[in-house]
Amino acid sequence: MKNMTQKENKLDPKQSSSAMTVCPECGKETDKTVKNVCPECFGKKLKLFDLPEVLHARICQRCGAHYYKSKWEDMGTPEEVAMLTAEEHLAIPDTIDNVTVGMHPHARSPYIFDVLVDVGGDVDDVTYYQNGKTEVRIKREACEMCSRRAGGYFEGIIQIRANNRTPTKEEVMDALKLVEESMLAQLKKGDKLAFVTDTMTFKDGADVYIGSTKAGKHVCKHIIEVMGGTVTESYTLAGMKDGKDIYRTTFAMKLPEFKKGDVVYFEDKVIEIKNCGKRVTGINLMNSSNFFIEGEHFKNTKLLGNTANAKETVLVSVEEHGIQILDPETFETITIQKPMGFNALPGSEIKVFKTEYGIFAL
To answer: TM spans, by residue (predicted)?
Structure first.
């Protein structure tokens, strides 16, 4: 027997000229025989296809996946699942040539479909058509992946922390958004385990429990590309399956040591950090020039503070290359470097950042 699906295509009977003969079953003269009888007599006993009267299909009530050929797959709408189920069980003898099949699903309810089937085929160059139907009953249940998700299944943990500091709430939230983006991308690529089982936030970061170790690697790579940082992996034995050890992976994700707004001393420069990802960018407060360097080379750096802690002081006067201000601590009048594009007026208040390397206007 063979299972086939082709576009429905009506074929005209193919006749071949031959001498007239008498059908041994009905006694009618015919110029064409099929298996030694006339086409009409052969057609009465011909069975073009076999199809069970009732079939059963399984669809995940949560994600819509269809259980097909011993595994869960995304197979489309319930109507498409009903047709695919009928097609899977449609049996056509190997002796039938030029087979054509047409299927038409009709919903009796959201869970029961009548699938009408039209089959055409040739036997000894004579075309026959037959039709029938089957009832497809759809059972809604949870697929393996959704069951795992509901049961708290996880293969790895992404530990989001920061290097030598506590990450801000904004940084943690940004990292969690990147986790969600990356997981969704991996799910669309076919990783059914690309989901977040649980998220726990702490004062020093967050732990994200994930269903897929493979997706976890992509998540960490995505975070590093956007926010910078490093990741190390460690493994813990979680049990056995089919005689093999099963391990869980811990991804120790460390965000960069510095964040936007930090002021640092690096290679005789005072830098206000604008971005600290794979590439570090900022402003050299000593001359207002742009600063950028690859993150891997941004080492031996001293943190001076953050611009959030800048102090306000009075602008006394503006000169060609400098400005006079009141020292925010001693209230003495001092001259400092004039920032590029500076346009504040004398008597106004401006923000300055005081360090052991000097005072800088922001």
So the answer is: none
Pick from 54, 165, 170: nearest CA to 112:
54
Among 251, 244, 291, 250, residue whose Cα is nearest residue 267: 291
Per the structure block, which two tokens stand in for 183?
A: 């997981």
- The tokens describing 3, both together, are 């299972």
Stretch 80-100: mean pLDDT: 92
**CA–CA dist 256, 176 (Å, integer):** 16
Selected residue with higher pLDDT from 227 and 137: 137
* Helical pair 213-227 and 169-188, crossing angle rounded to 10 deg: 130
Sorted by where each starts, the structural domains of the chain and their CATH numbers stand as: 21-144 (no CATH), 152-255 (no CATH), 310-362 (2.40.50)
Say if residues 65 and 73 touch (Cβ distance below 8 Å).
Answer: yes
> Residues of the chain with pLDDT > 70: what percent?
95
Please state, in angstroms and rounded to a whole number, the distance separating the CA atoms of residues 198 and 329. 49
pLDDT given for residue 244 in this prediction: 78
